[in-house]
Design goal:
single chain; mainly alpha; 2 domains; two-stranded antiparallel ribbon; 20 helices; 73% helix; 2% strand
């Protein structure tokens, strides 16, 4: 028991800052959404009108929850629950891989296994760690909602529903770590499972059956194939069902049991999915550090690019629909104008979706630069730097590939936007607005490249948690800030809040020149400081 507690304490210390950001971020998002709903949709009639629009255009449900009525609490959870569950799922899957396959990669697991702890105690400590993390997230979300005056039972079900989805993906992460040979492969497998599950829940809701009064949606069978769909079936502040919570928790524990069984029959450092055999001879592109980074980052960039393609399609496909329904729905028009800065409905919809695109591009950028830290902790960076490759050139490779990744995501979105216009025979003049808005997001996402690079140079152990935390904060300020009623100067702290937009009077460049200056200064600072920085081992 003493060894187990020591291992658990070590995990809690390592993840203290990260878990604080994940859990308090989810709770803060829940609290601010409730405040925003109370301000923007203070009457049941306003909420009912939005739900009627959703039923008429169910594609909106791809990114929202399951409508369960026009009550204030139920409506709020319809807007925010998928995002709360998504935060819990990402937190849990990353946690599981970090303390299992990640520790095996850097040799920590082998050292621990050579002691009395053996091989099973670390895995059980990681499982307990994940359970505690989700319990904290569920508790903070429930407290945040209760603090706004909502019903205690519904608040508790909301928090438990999000935490239960997190437990499911804790199990997914543990199993992925057993199957894949590397932590990046395990994380990729877990994230793909997460995104497919998220999409299945959204599609299942979209093809469901609306009630006669257009206030409630009965989802299709497809939703029941997804843990996100199970979480939404709790229907907080309406049905307050606990059965789906038990189902999510049970699946998570079953998957954890599978992970324990798999670990017992494999060698330390081994995997059930073997690495792909390499070519007899390496291609010429791998003879440079830039080519090596591009090869390492290629799968993730392709994944983020696919997300950009879907975002672009939805931006132009839904712009005409939202323009038409906004005429009869002032509440919806208010949302779009708040996010877009006062442009007309069609342009505003493009701005709103491309703000989300900027978040995707920033995620691609941060993940690519964070690979530098992963290479450093695994010891592979030392091998590269033992050749005639200096530190500045090595880091520059990650920065350049991250920028290329941003371009790929934005370009994919532009292709998707053009396809969306072609599919509905839309106004091709809108494509110009799309290009301008997308170009602005390149500058915004590039800020995260250099900021993460500076963190990597100055405080390497904070590279991954702080880099992702900045993306989360920027998303909250840039995407939700206008809806939450934040002052303009607070919203503009997010790079996504000061990107150029198209207005009826022309192009508003906003803070474009500041963004470009920040990118240039940050890049020079990171590369300049890298000259004097020694390699930092894993912490």
């Amino acid at each position: 028991m003493t060894i187990f507690l020591a291992l658990l304490g070590q995990r809690l210390r390592r993840d203290g800052v990260q878990l604080l950001l994940w859990t308090t971020g989810a709770a803060l998002l829940a609290y601010l959404t409730k405040v925003s709903v109370a301000q923007a949709y203070g009457t049941e009639e306003a909420r009912a009108s939005i739900l009627a629009v959703v039923m008429a255009n169910p594609v909106i449900l791809l990114f929202r929850g399951l409508p369960s009525g026009a009550g204030e609490g139920a409506f709020m959870l319809f807007l925010i629950f998928p995002f709360l569950a998504l935060l819990a799922a990402l937190m849990s899957s990353f946690l599981a891989v970090r303390h299992t396959r990640g520790d095996e990669e850097i040799g920590r697991a082998e050292l621990v296994a050579s002691t009395r702890a053996g091989r099973q105690a670390p895995l059980l400590a990681t499982l307990t760690h994940g359970i505690l993390a989700n319990a904290v997230l569920a508790t903070l979300c429930a407290v945040a909602l209760t603090a706004t005056g909502l019903d205690i039972r519904g608040s508790v079900v909301s928090g438990l529903g999000a935490g239960a989805v997190g437990l499911t993906f804790l199990g997914v992460g543990l199993v992925s770590a057993q199957l894949m040979r590397t932590s990046s492969g395990a994380n990729s497998l877990a994230v793909w499972a997460l995104m497919l599950s998220f999409l299945a829940a959204g599609i299942g809701n979209a093809i469901g059956t609306p009630s006669n009064d257009l206030q409630r949606m009965e989802s299709s069978w497809l939703t029941w194939l997804s843990p996100f769909g199970w979480g939404e079936q709790t229907r907080p502040f309406a049905d307050d069902a606990v059965g789906p919570i038990v189902l999510c928790t049970a699946l998570g524990m079953v998957l954890a049991g599978v992970a324990v069984a798999l670990q017992a029959v494999r060698d330390l450092g081994g995997s059930f999915v073997p690495e792909r055999r390499g070519r007899p001879g390496a291609p010429a592109t791998l003879s440079t550090p830039l080519g090596l980074v591009a090869r390492l980052a290629r799968p993730s960039i392709i994944g983020w690019g696919f997300g950009g393609l879907v975002t672009g399609i939805l931006a132009t496909t839904l712009s005409g629909v939202i323009r038409d329904i906004g005429v009869d729905n002032p509440a919806l028009e208010q949302i779009i104008r708040a996010i877009s800065g006062g442009t007309d409905m069609e342009q505003g919809t493009v701005v709103a979706f491309f703000t989300m695109l900027g978040i995707l591009a920033a995620c691609c950028a941060v993940q690519t630069v964070c690979r530098a830290r992963q290479e450093e902790t695994r010891g592979t960076a030392e091998l590269v730097l033992s050749t005639p490759v200096d530190r500045v050139r090595w880091l520059a490779g990650f920065v350049i590939v991250a920028f290329v990744g941003v371009l790929v995501v934005i370009a994919a979105a532009l292709v998707g936007a053009a396809a969306g216009l072609a599919s509905r025979e839309g106004d091709w003049a809108l494509l110009g607005d799309v290009v301008i808005t997308g170009a602005g997001q390149i500058a915004a996402a590039s800020v995260f490249i250099v900021v993460t690079a500076v963190i990597f140079v100055v405080a390497p152990r904070l590279t991954i948690p702080l880099g992702w935390a900045l993306v989360l904060v920027s998303m909250t300020l840039g995407l939700f800030g206008p809806l939450f009623g934040f002052p303009d100067w607070v919203v503009e702290l997010s790079p996504m809040g000061v990107t150029p937009t198209v207005t009826s009077d022309g192009i508003d460049v906003k803070g474009l020149w500041w963004l470009i200056a920040a990118v240039a200064a940050g890049g020079a600072l990171a590369l300049g400081l890298m000259r004097r920085r020694d390699l930092a081992p894993a912490g």
